[in-house]
């Protein structure tokens, strides 16, 4: 059993490294859209007293998450074309990931917030994000910092905390071009 698990781990690690290398190659060229899941947080759900305007009432970046966000920024600076814009969910964990990583004030973009439970509101959020992505035509990269469920709804991909998914519009949805793990 141990040998099987070790063999499985050895097979997965190179695939992740290859995916990361391919993602960096895309980002070096610029002109891409990146969906970035916020960095590591302190828990699993927001407290009952959640208030979007008050960070102490939300899940926030852990110390490891802050280090991860800093590493994300350093790697983007060293390995990718410049970042043209950073849009972020209004949740503090996303805003802080963006601030630490890209050393700039991100543009809060409510459609990147956690998806609403009402189907019509959820559809409106996803449409707004798709409109933003389809409208992007810059030569540098556009980063959208958001949450797991948003990225899954847009791409079908389930990224880790702090993972970047490089996408492009395709038909009514998005095509995943590459991924970068940190």
From TrEMBL:
UniProt keyword Signal present: yes
Coiled coil: none
UniProt keyword annotation of Membrane present: no
Signal peptide annotation: 1-19
InterPro entries linked to this entry: His_Pase_superF_clade-1 (IPR013078), His_PPase_superfam (IPR029033)
Keywords from the UniProt entry: Signal
Protein name: Putative phosphohistidine phosphatase SixA
UniProt organism field: Mesorhizobium amorphae CCNWGS0123
């Amino acid at each position: 059993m141990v040998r099987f698990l070790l063999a499985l781990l050895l097979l997965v690690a190179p695939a992740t490294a290859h995916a990361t290398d391919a993602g960096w190659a895309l980002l070096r060229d610029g002109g891409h859209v990146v969906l970035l899941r916020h960095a590591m947080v302190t828990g699993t759900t927001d407290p009952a007293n959640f208030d979007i305007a008050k960070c102490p009432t939300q899940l926030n970046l852990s110390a490891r998450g802050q280090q991860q966000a800093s590493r994300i920024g350093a790697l983007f600076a060293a390995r990718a074309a410049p970042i043209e814009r950073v849009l972020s969910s209004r949740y503090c964990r996303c805003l802080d990931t963006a601030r630490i990583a890209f050393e700039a004030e991100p543009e809060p973009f409510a459609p990147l917030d956690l998806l609403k439970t009402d189907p019509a509101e959820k559809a409106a959020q996803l449409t707004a994000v798709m409109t933003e992505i389809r409208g992007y035509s810059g030569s540098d990269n556009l980063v959208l910092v958001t949450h797991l469920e948003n990225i899954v709804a847009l791409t079908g991909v389930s990224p880790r905390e702090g993972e970047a998914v490089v996408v492009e519009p395709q038909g009514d949805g998005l095509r995943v071009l590459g991924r970068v793990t940190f």
